[in-house]
Amino acid sequence: MKALRLNALAIALGLGALLPGTTMAASDEPISVIQPPQSINIGMAELGKKLYFDPRLSKSGFISCNSCHNLSMGGTDNLPTSIGDKWQQGPINAPTVLNSSLNVAQFWDGRAADLKAQAGGPIANPGEMAFTHTLAVDVLQSIPGYVREFKMVFGKDKIDIDEVTLAIAEFEKTLVTPNARFDQWLLGKQDALSAKEKAGYALFKDSGCIACHNGEAVGGNSFQKMGVVEPYQAKSPAEGRSAVTGKDADRFNFKVPTLRNVEMTYPYFHDGAANTLTEAVDIMGRLQLGRTFSAEENANIVAFLKTLTGDQPAFTLPILPPSTDATPRPKPF
Amino acid sequence: MKALRLNALAIALGLGALLPGTTMAASDEPISVIQPPQSINIGMAELGKKLYFDPRLSKSGFISCNSCHNLSMGGTDNLPTSIGDKWQQGPINAPTVLNSSLNVAQFWDGRAADLKAQAGGPIANPGEMAFTHTLAVDVLQSIPGYVREFKMVFGKDKIDIDEVTLAIAEFEKTLVTPNARFDQWLLGKQDALSAKEKAGYALFKDSGCIACHNGEAVGGNSFQKMGVVEPYQAKSPAEGRSAVTGKDADRFNFKVPTLRNVEMTYPYFHDGAANTLTEAVDIMGRLQLGRTFSAEENANIVAFLKTLTGDQPAFTLPILPPSTDATPRPKPF
Prior knowledge:
Chain A is mainly α. The first copy, chain A, has helices at 2-12, 42-53, 65-68, 115-124, 133-141, 144-154, 161-173, 181-186, 195-206, 242-245, 277-289, 295-305; strands at 83-84, 88-89, 223-225, 253-255. Chain A has two domains: 2-30 and 180-308, Cytochrome c-like domain (Cytochrome Bc1 Complex, Chain D, domain 2, Orthogonal Bundle); 42-173, Cytochrome c-like domain (Cytochrome Bc1 Complex, Chain D, domain 2), CATH 1.10.760.10.
């Protein structure tokens, strides 16, 4: 990682101009091949998949993790900001859950250290699933199908919220998207990318995008200011990292989003204000790099970005164990 | 079917008392083995599966067919009445989509003749998906992944709403749930049911439940008055079949719901007012048959009903083709 960051820095400083045209080994590129998950507890992940799809973790019985991080749609809801309990409007764009295990931290402001810490947030957020951890556990504990499966995975009769969030996180770790055309190219398949896509990648490096969007996830590994050269006029009141650190210097610092599967994760930015990749590339160029891309340059970068779409998670829709007479009923209205 | 109806009638008239204890061939039973789907256009069903899971068929971009007919939860939302666009409260309980191809007609009042006619309803209902057929087709037509798939299936470049609803219906025809323990018993596996479950089935026939809940779907094949012996105090304003026929005699006539997978399709009745099977069996006994089941009788019937849970649909979660720059964006707020 250190070597990679230095490489990225060198490119951001303009040294990247030396790179295009030369034949590089994949290991020399500032973007690295995304790896399929390496160490998964399958029983725990299967349990987590059920929980991920279970709207009974919400007060209404209507909203599950998958409602806003929809695995049919790039792990997002494709809305500028999400819909919460009683149709409340969320303050920020729902980031993709795909490849989120590679993030330096979770949420746009990084307030959760890892996926487990993140998973508990929306359940208890009054604007999202609007439940409490205690009530969610009470529901699960009343369902024999869950009690048995938790016992198999964790060896205990009593379910607790740590087990719930651990299982959801384990499932989320499986949501990696390998085999993008860009990865095929990194792995040596020269014709996996067109000339236009390669030109887009060269420009992505030369112009400095790569300084923040690098590594396995093409982002997700640092916090950066939104609006470096020009301030960004956000539609969201969120101020980013400063909400976590309390430091004024961190205002409008947000986690750099992954660009993996970016073709599927529209609309863009923490406020979801950019509808298209063309718009997003244009705004990023001007506000972050002080550079106005020509229409052709923009199109080339967009063509490159679309090569980052990997194999989407393929799994059987989980069937949820039914509630019993003892299960507390949801309160939708 | 005629033989079956006569048989059911005989049982309703009390002749069923002769049956229990005798060893019957499955073909003599008033409930028949549910058949896996017989004739499916796989390409059309695969397209329909995507559409079924696609929230872009709603105005908000948030509600899909699967939101209220959730295939992880018995093809229902497990809520008394459903949540529609902007969190509107629906007027009636969402019936299960499982085995709905066996219904005599669709919706509680039978206002749609078949699944295709049904599928168009919620898309354009202002209280449900709140879209229009034209706008839904415009969205699909802007997505090359869909245009190609519609062309493959229907042979035309231009998508229309008939193709959309036909494809959804074809997918729904696959949602049959064979292999319930009860079917295994019908097919000759004597120990597939416990003594208690067999006693419950005998009582279900003897007491007259079978008069309406019979056939492959254990219901779904007739309209009957809710509240025969005593009137039903509904929490829903719906008056049932009379809304379709205009006949006063049809007031409070509703389609008899299927009892297949009834353990998963709580809460019960057209107003979703019965939370548990115990409650539902008790109310049905008193209001429809003038009979108060003892606690043991009730428990036996409930035990029988739980043997009607079949194999749930098992399929890979569909990945939806992404929107393009030209795709009209949803209006969630």
